[in-house]
Amino acid sequence: MRKLKSAAVALAALALSAASFGSASAQDFPNRTVTMVVPFAAGGPTDTVARLVAESMSRSLGQQVIVENVGGAGGTRGAGQVAKAAPDGYTVLLHHIGQATSATLYRKLPYNVLTDFEEVGLVTDVPMTMIAKSGLEPKDIPGLIAYVKANKDKVIYGNAGVGSASHLCGMLFMSALGTQMTTVPYQGTGPAMNDLVGGQIDLMCDQTTNTTGQIKAGKVKAYGVTTPNRLKSLPDIPTFKEGGLPGFEVAVWHGMYAPKGTPKAAIDKLNAALVAALQDPKVIARFADLGTEPVALDRATPEVHQKFLAAEVAKWKPVIEQAGVFAD
């Protein structure tokens, strides 16, 4: 009996010691490099957002925040890697709207988007633009709508892969038109954009972080923006509501996550660095060049992020189920 009691006391002491060590370790966070996983290929719009934020967060944290691109499976490969990472704050995920839609797009997802992560905060809402190869015939949105309906079997729509923002935008566009197009999924935004510029595909809908430069350089034709109002960065491009397609509105929000169980002290420090990045004049200016801006600071909290993610999962679930488009 005494031996059992002694063993119990020893285990309790060990648990207390481990908890104290974990707490102290979290308080000292960070004392080494933090890895920010982007679940898409380098050079894409989410990668661009991540690198701007990571650079600024490095200064606030006093440790380097490096970006690691872990593409594949519509963003679920990288997200799954973070879900399984040690919950110590040294591995975070920068993901877009796909974090919410993957909960329905993938019926056998190896993690739960609502319970296997700690939300750090929302980052930005990025508008989208419908763009085409420079030689596509229609001159405006009404012309594009008529053209797609008349040539649905011939029009080739490219996207960055199943579950990507460009895939979701295209799905909503086809749903709004009641017309299907030939869809070609690529391994990332970069390859899809290269083929659009080269004229191998006809259309793509993507984030302004990736399309603004191409539009201003005249390499692609821009038809419309997916926002209620015109963008300051692209004032000559009409909204789809102006073009006769009301309701076709979508923005690609981005958020930051850590593995479930990451100490609150680490989450708080990551959030503080994120909030500082969202107020960094360099980040704000660069975001503006890309046609977006940081979220309002009252949205950059773990609590708001958690509620918003749950609402987005609920919002997209019936849309995806009705379309009958799944990734597995």
Account of the 3D structure:
By secondary structure, this protein is α/β, with parallel strands linked by helices. Helices cover 45% and strands 19% of the residues. It contains 11 helices and 10 strands. The chain has helices spanning 2-27, 45-61, 76-83, 98-105, 141-150, 165-177, 189-197, 208-216, 264-278, 281-289, 302-323, and strands spanning 34-38, 65-69, 91-95, 117-133, 156-159, 182-185, 203-207, 220-225, 251-259, 293-294. Strands 1, 2, 3, 4, 7, 8, 9 and 10 form an 8-stranded mixed beta sheet that branches. A two-stranded parallel sheet has the order 5-6. The longest helix is centred in the N-terminal third of the chain and has 26 residues, at 2-27.
Strand content: 15-25%
Gross morphology is globular
Helices, by number, come to 11
* Mean pLDDT across all amino acids: 90
User: How many strands, what sense, and barrel or not for the largest sheet?
Assistant: 8 strands, mixed
Number of strands: 10
Radius of gyration: 22 Å
Q: How far is the first residue's CA from the last residue's CA?
A: 56 Å
Unreliable residue stretches: 17-22
Q: H/E order of the elements?
A: HEHEHEHEHEHEHEHEEHHEH
Q: Which secondary-structure class do the elements indicate?
A: alpha/beta
User: What is the helical fraction, as a range of percent?
Assistant: 40-55%
